[in-house]
Amino acid sequence: MDGGATKKRAERVAKYADMFSAMGTEPRLRIMQLLLSAHPEGLVVGDIQGELEIPNSTLSHHLDKLKNEDLVHVQRESTFLRYTANTEALQELLQFLYSECCTRNKALKPQDIVEVCR
To answer: Which of 72, 82, 94, 112 could form a disulfide with 66 if both were Cys (CB 3.0 to 4.6 A apart)?
Structure first.
């Protein structure tokens, strides 16, 4: 493998590690679950806060972390902020796991992945 390809692969791994890290706390994982359940419309901050009962300043911190790792999108609607899950980024992350980690040693079969996602 040439140096450029190795560097690019290392950058991808670092990016995905940061994404996993961003979702690696219980509140952020709950936020992602909630936003995925509200896909594609997403939710305004007040609805997220009401559902998860996370204090506003703490919720803002968690949402910023998820946004910085491109796991969520935010859109201003008048005085509200609407958050949606970035399903393209999540699909990319799952594809990375499957292609890089599972196909090499056949740890999981494609039907296993489909079953897990149902």
So the answer is: 72
